[in-house]
Known about the structure:
Layout: E1 21-25, E2 28-32, E3 37-41, H1 45-59, H2 62-67, H3 74-88, H4 110-119, H5 123-131, E4 134-139, H6 145-156, E5 161-165, E6 174-180, E7 182-192, E8 195-198, H7 204-222, H8 234-252, E9 273-279, E10 282-288, H9 309-319, E11 342-346, E12 360-364, H10 368-384, E13 389-392, H11 395-417, H12 434-446, E14 451-457, E15 465-471, E16 483-489, H13 492-512, H14 527-531, H15 545-567, H16 582-590, E17 594-597
Parallel strand pairs: 4-5
Antiparallel strand pairs: 1-2, 2-3, 4-6, 6-7, 7-8, 8-9, 9-10, 11-12, 13-17, 14-15, 15-16
Amino acid sequence: MTGADTGEDRASGGRLRPGTAVTPLRAGLHLRGRRAGVTLEGSTAVPVVWGLLEEPLRAGRLAQFREGLEPGSAVRVAVDTLVGQLADHDLLLPPPPAAGTPDPAGAVHPAVARWIDATAARPADAAAALATARAEVLARDPAAPPAAAAVRALEACGLPVTRTPDPRLPGDRVLLTVRGAGRERAVAAGRGGATGYVTAPGSAAQARADAAALETRLADAAGDAALQPHQTPGAFAALLAGAAAHRLLCAAAALPDPAAEADDPRLLPGIPAVLLADTRPARADHHSWLGPEHIDADRRVRLAPPADLTEALRRITALGEHRCGPLPGPLPGELPQLPVPLATCTLPGPATGDAGSPRTLTGGGPRLDLARLELFCRAAELLLGESEFTVGADPAHARGRALRHAAARRLAAAAAAVPDGRTAVDPTRWSGHPQLRHWWTTLTDRLAVPARLEVHRAAPRAQAYRAVVRRTPAGPGRGPGPVLGEAVEATPGDAAAFAALAAVTATCTAATGPSAARPRPSGAAVAPLAAAGARTAAWEDLGWTGGWLADLAGREEAFQNTLHRLSKTGPAAPTRDFAPDPEPAGLLRSFGFTVLRTAEEAR
Length: 603
């Protein structure tokens, strides 16, 4: 332990937070509390000083103990320094109220007072809020196990509880509310299928809406594994009721929500979290979740666009969680990952409004993370209406995807109108691209697909090229073969490489079964997002995916501007908000994704 801070003011009062554990070290101490910890090292005298100090600190007699130490002595300096470190790491309670001042902690249950002392930054404020709190438990049958467990949990905390029958609630759902501690707060607990849940704190109307949406999604995810109504085990009901009471008391006392305690990297800051619990195996954890009805102000959240690919994938994981995620989650599943990484997802409804349309979507990319992002955006577009919207992780990604799709359609139409009126780019300008060589060899040699590749300039003197891979017809005179892959990029080599990659992906996905729709050419639109924050080694040239993406990222903005000038239309910037339905368009925007109108709609 070092430092000259004597902690004179902080050592004048206060006591150690309840539950603080101490581990002596050879030349120091390790202390850990509910929300913080600290290791103090530097002298074998530290454990000795702690042996003198611990009992006065835990009993709240620090001031009296210090009065018995000679001012300026080595022991007093050591004591004050140690206490100052504890205060800096939030392991000390504030000094008690002055004599004659009412102590709010005396008006709450002793167990609750101890919990507040262990967790609250300002215990007196939290205790004062709970001292006037009154709880109510609403259920269809207030005597049923879920409601009875909720009542016991709240009464164990010393809160007066009112039981109220509510015939509108399902049999296994309970609604807990608290009044008198500021605005009314409520949480709902219940189950959908075999999975239990506890909603995030909010208004009663928000809790009811969240619970109804959760139960529907959980029941759909459970399928045949769902429990029958009123079959919630007693221990399971007690777990959910205790978790609900905990969240409700934290909200009433203005304490951090329990979902924020574990620093779970899967949870997205700013998005409410629901607790999901299962019995087989026994498990409970929190998940970021926004219901379809955003009644409370804190539900009308809109995250900033993700800063990099890692953050975008975190949000995709939250949106695609297999039990409560409202959108399809792209995962590799059991798909082969060679010669190209593949991911798949199942759309929650018919992809194009046709009841006979396939509901499985499969896609690939140079890396699995890129394949997952591309497939998620494609699935979201299909759910929104693929002819009207383009989805991207951020505005630049969405704009790049929209402009490439519009340019590919325009150039394909022009090529069909004048099939022999164009001159292909000399293959010597693009055949040496290392990414093209890899994917073309994979397509024609490893997969044995007879194919031909052509690259054309999008317009005279424009730095934009369209590459198309077609299957070679089986015999002479049969005309051009079907398109296997296409791309529109800033250089002929990049366009050829992405077209060959698309052809490999199409060939491999066709072998796994029918897919919902042919993917749009999006190519390097993802490059700036993938390169953000990524460290590229000096030896990573264009033959490495990371080096290729970094090279592409440097040209992406200029290339998008080129496509925009050539098209004379298309979204030059994110369009105005358009949310015909809060889900999925509004939900995507809430999670920071960008939803654009297509070029035709943006005129």
